[in-house]
Amino acid sequence: MVRLHRDAEDSAELPHMAEFLNREAERCGRYAAPEDLHARLSGTSETKTRRIQRAHVTHHRETTSTAYKARSCLICNGDHPMSACATFKEATIEERWEYCKKRNACFRCLMKRQFRHRCPTKPCGVDSCRGTHHRMLHNSERPPTSRSSSSTQESSCQAVVTSARPSNQGAPKIVPIRLTGPKANIDTYALLDEGSTITLIDAAVAEAVGAAGTPEPFHIEGVAGTAVDASASQRVTLEIRGRHHKKTHQITAHTMDRLNLFTQTVDRDEIVAHKHLRDIANDLCYEHAHPTVLIGQDNWPLIITRAVRGGRKSEPAASYTELGWVLHGGGVVQAHQVHCARWTPKQQEAAQIEVLLKQYFDLDSLGIEPKRPPATRPTRTRHTARQNETE
């Protein structure tokens, strides 16, 4: 220790530490167990070589498989991509989407999805569509999903359509009718809605029959706070009768642009299968019926039930109105489209988002109080003095 202390007086701290460690290593090295460094180094190198070779083989197999699947069709297994398949080209837009879903194909490139699938994201471009799907999957009948940034006072309607075939859901009361106006007669369908207080007619249909009236804007309120303002509506008068009846009725209705009601079909075989409905099957059956008139309580004599044809609880029933027989019950309607519409003014979207954010942070901060710095001793003394004076 005396020798080490004398050496430290003539050298810096770091060189002194290095010399000390080297001397200790030399003294202890003779007692350390020998190690076969050559075996360790050779074993590590061999392991790395095996791993590199194994990774190379795996990469080669994945590349070969991907190239083969890119050339083969996912529908007919032909030597061409799915976009060039004749079956895929002849299919409808809905069928093409089903092909992609069932065969796990990418909606952008129509290729088989692989592990770490990558494909360029490009807009569709058809009819200025900004979607990232393939051009062959574009539905021209679907309205664009992009929202306009300009603020307007008109209300926007967002409709969510779901096609279903429920077995226990009741069929809406749809009846074939004939509308008569100054210009023409039109055969169409009417929806008898006992929950509506007014009668609506599609503006295009009213114009086609020549039914003109006076401007009368109105405001509709529906379930769950839904509402719509029809500022261009007119109050028109026209004649209506059931397509299988000769008696005509005069009704008053409000016009509405794009009265987007559902389309449904009643299968004749399903109706004939029930004995109590066979003789009126011609009045109940129709295909792809799209109502353009909604009759409400302001024309209640046309929608109330005059007679009923019923069977067991699980069977459909029919009721007779002034416009003809209408169907009740489930199991006979095909491709029933359920429309859930929500009307919201575009200028209020930003305000609604701000309200939701404020509510979120108000709930998130429940039970949380800001920390206050502890008062100093003079402050506590003054506060105690004020309390004593008050008492």
Question: How would you explain this protein's 3D organization?
Answer:
By secondary structure, this protein is an alpha+beta fold. Among the domains are: 56-138, no CATH class; 161-341, Cathepsin D, subunit A, domain 1 (Beta Barrel). The chain has 10 helices and 17 strands. It has helices spanning 2-9, 13-29, 37-71, 86-90, 93-102, 203-209, 268-272, 281-284, 349-364, 377-390; strands at residues 155-164, 174-180, 185-192, 200-202, 214-215, 218-221, 227-230, 234-242, 249-256, 264-266, 286-289, 291-295, 307-309, 317-321, 324-328, 333-334, 336-345. It has a 6-stranded mixed barrel with strand order 2-3-12-4-9-8. Strands 11-10-16 form a 3-stranded antiparallel sheet. A hairpin with a 7-residue loop joins strand 13 (307-309) and strand 14 (317-321). The radius of gyration is 39 Å and the shape is extended. The model is unreliable at 45-50, 52-69, 143-168 and 335-348 (pLDDT under 50).
Give the helices and strands, then pairings.
Blueprint lengths: L1 H8 L3 H17 L7 H35 L14 H5 L2 H10 L52 E10 L9 E7 L4 E8 L7 E3 H7 L4 E2 L2 E4 L5 E4 L3 E9 L6 E8 L7 E3 L1 H5 L8 H4 L1 E4 L1 E5 L11 E3 L7 E5 L2 E5 L4 E2 L1 E10 L3 H16 L12 H14 L1
Parallel strand pairs: 3-12, 4-9
Antiparallel strand pairs: 1-17, 2-3, 2-8, 4-12, 5-8, 6-7, 8-9, 10-11, 10-16, 13-14, 14-15
CATH topology of the domain at 161-341: Cathepsin D, subunit A, domain 1
- The CATH architecture assignment of the domain at 161-341 turns out to be Beta Barrel
CATH superfamily of the domain at 161-341: Acid Proteases
What is the structural class?
alpha+beta
Tell how many strands the DSSP assignment holds. 17
The geometry reads as extended
Question: Can you give the helix content as a percent range?
Answer: 25-40%
User: What is the CATH class name of the domain at 161-341?
Assistant: Mainly Beta
How many separate helices?
A: 10
